[in-house]
Amino acid sequence: MSAFIAEVALRWSDMDAFGHVNHARTITLLEEARAGLLFTEAGHRGLEGMAEGMVVARVVIDYHAPLVYEAGSLQVRMSVRDLRAASFLIDYTASAWGSASVATAETLMVPYDLAAGRPRRLTAAERDFLAEWQVAVELADKEPTGA
Questions:
Q1: Which helix (H) or strand (E) holds 131?
Q2: Mapping DSSP to helix (H, G, I), strand (E, B) and coil, where does residue 106 land?
Q3: CATH classification of 4-136, choosing from 3.90.550.10, 3.40.50.880, 3.10.129.10, 3.30.379.10?
Q4: What are the residues whose beta carbons fall under 8 Å from the beta carbon of 95, sequence distance 6 or more?
Q5: CA distance 49 to 47
Q6: Over the range 94-106, which residues count as b (16 or more CB within 10 Å of their CB) and which as e?
Q7: pLDDT 10s digits, 91-137
Q8: Inter-residue contact 104 to 62 (CB < 8 Å)
Q9: So where are the chain's domains?
Q10: Which of 76, 69, 87, 86 lies closest to 35 in space, CA to CA?
Q11: What is the Rg, in whole angstroms, of the alpha carbon atoms belonging to the chain?
């Protein structure tokens, strides 16, 4: 399938003293993009439970270039990887509109039962929804080189 793409507006308050978007704000921008997938898009398909209990168990981010406020917005491409019974990874590629990647990231997501106060398993419908956003690995990347 294809990646989910979200456009997130940059705010003046996202900048740090050096004129770049602050690293903590970058994570918040990725969170806003993720909400577009897990809450808004899932909600449109009748999967409101994802918005009622989904937590980040781990976040990893690699910065490739400074993100500046003047870029106006951040385009975030997300795909799902390592889909398991009670967790999944979201991969992100964040780009300032019309430029190269400024960051790549991943979050380990865990569905959570807020009333019970513990993790839960994904429902079959949630797994099917998330599977739609898994991106196939290019075969060319897996072919051996040389003879």
A1: helix 124-131
A2: strand
A3: 3.10.129.10
A4: 74, 75, 76, 77, 101, 102
A5: 5
A6: bbbeeeebbbbbb
A7: 999 998 667 899 999 999 999 999 999 999 999 999 999 999 998 65
A8: yes
A9: 4-136
A10: 76
A11: 17
Q: What is the pLDDT of residues 6-22, one digit of tens each?
A: 999 888 888 888 888 88
* CA–CA gap between residue 15 and residue 3 (Å, rounded): 28
* Cβ pair 65, 93 in contact under 8 A: no
The per-residue DSSP string of 14-68 comes to GB-TTSBB-HHHHHHHHHHHHHIIIIIIHHHTT-GGGTTSEEEEEEEEEE-S--B
pLDDT of 79 reads 97
Separation CA 142–CA 109 (nearest Å)? 27
Task: Supply the mean pLDDT for the chain.
Answer: 87
The yes-or-no verdict on residue 35 having pLDDT over 60 is: yes
Q: Tokens 């979201």, residue?
A: 90
Cα 127 to Cα 116: distance, rounded to the nearest angstrom: 21
130: left (phi over 0), alpha (psi -120 to 50) or beta: alpha
Q: What is the pTM of this model?
A: 0.86
